[in-house]
Specification:
about 300 residues; mainly alpha; 8 helices; transmembrane; EmrE-like; transmembrane helix; DMT family transporter; YdcZ
Amino acid sequence: MLWILLGIIAGLVLPIQTLVNTRLRASTGTPFSSSLISFAVGTVTLLIIATAVTGGDFGISRAFGEPLWIWLGGLLGVVALTGNILLFPHLGAVQTVVLPIAGQIMMGLVIDHLGLFDSPASPLTIVRASGAVVVLGGVIAIVAGPGAPPKSEDSAVSLWLWRLAGFVFGCFTASQSAINGHLGQITGSPVSAALVSFTIGVSALVILNTILRWRPRIERPEGKANPWWMWVGGVLGALFVFGNAALVPQIGTGLTVVATLLGSMLGSVLIDRMRGARVELRQIIGVAVILMGVILIRLV
């Protein structure tokens, strides 16, 4: 039970990280600059953890000669993280977490069914397909209807485009997890795989920010002092990756996914509530329905 509780706590990190990185964007000026800082902080954090865990033998050389896609996890992570920063102001915390979760689960089923990225093949069964339908029902319950919280300048069409983007970002996250999982097997350490992913991600963001001619600067929105906590998004992301690596051997992948997703959804509802947004019964029911679908997909 303690390990499951730790999984829920790890899941709470994700919506907090999105909120922190969104605040960082307000000071740096662009989502790509805030992603760069977050990835850089996360890379340093993972370097320290990986050095302590592996004794400095990261095993990265074992991945040389593998298919090119083995190195794409970091790029997919960049898209997913930056996408969440873009989504948050338009969709709020709940939808920013729930929509990528739906994409993550659906893409996970495709990866499992086809054995993509050298993952163990797990054919799609009626029970697993039913779980996917239940998840979609929960997502619709949360994002549809008059209670959805769009920004005033967002039209109905643009709002649904943001929601579609959130689903796609979740597909990228599932692909990143599968790629990093295989990379972890090759290097002999999931922490080393996460370090490689973050290093590639930060390298891509350096190039992107150079092309966009962003110069490091920290502004004070509306003249207010910048809070210290806006710098810890990368640490939270690194701890989440490391936490998953520690939980899976103890409680298995299925329970780890359920526990962390439950924590993410609960955290997103709490954050929306703390920001003054109205949390409706429809959203709470939707979260519960999604959890039921996840259990059907992962545990049955």
